[in-house]
Amino acid sequence: MLNYVWFFLAAVFEIAGCYGFWMWLRQGKSAWWVVPAVLSLAAFALLLTKVEATYAGRAYAAYGGTYIIASIAWLAVVERIRPLSSDWVGVGLCVLGATVILLGPRFSSN
């Protein structure tokens, strides 16, 4: 369960970092937006290492589901755009997939 806390925090920092670059390059804001963006992306990377997974690739794949939840929440809260029903269906599917990747049984490929 603690993995989801790390995933959520990492997602917030990743989205915030990317948003800083978005604001600078796409919205014409000051280049100073890059400073907190880079710090936020560094925090994202550090937080993702807290996930209890044997392999980094599996942790990153499972993180994707949480990132999608946070992205849709960001859309609603920060950008004030109401998510569509299909957005929430997609979120549910992604979270289910992330859970299977992170917690599912391990089958041998041999």
From TrEMBL:
The keyword Membrane applies. Pfam families: UPF0060. It comes from Pseudomonas taetrolens. Keywords: Cell membrane, Membrane, Transmembrane, Transmembrane helix. One of its GO terms (cellular component) is plasma membrane. This is Membrane protein. Belongs to the UPF0060 family. PANTHER family: UPF0060 MEMBRANE PROTEIN YNFA (PTHR36116:SF1). The chain crosses the membrane at residues 6-24, 31-48, 60-77, 89-107. It is found in: Cell membrane. It is a multi-pass membrane protein.
